[in-house]
Amino acid sequence: MTPTTVIDIGRQAVEVMLMISAPLFIAALATGLVISIFQAATQINEATLSFVPKLVAVFITLVVAGPWMIAVLVDFVRRLFGSIPGMIG
Fold this sequence. Notes:
The chain is mainly alpha-helical. The chain has one domain (3-88). It contains three helices and no strands. Helix 1 packs antiparallel against helix 2. The longest helix is centred in the N-terminal third of the chain and has 40 residues, at 3-42. The chain is elongated and about 65 Å long. The termini are close together.
């Protein structure tokens, strides 16, 4: 197993991690932005006001995008496990 192989596997793992986490981060970011605009417009400065909507948005995103996220992760793990004999020999 060469250093190039290890770096390539690490790069692929980071790419999969970013792909899987992106929908959740985007949902939390968009919800936080909307709540922040609402707070600025109404001058309500409550820090806990954005927590529950963010939690709900991330949960809904997880329910909607969950099957795709699992499929991406399972595909990566299958390719990784399938390439183990080639790495060893």
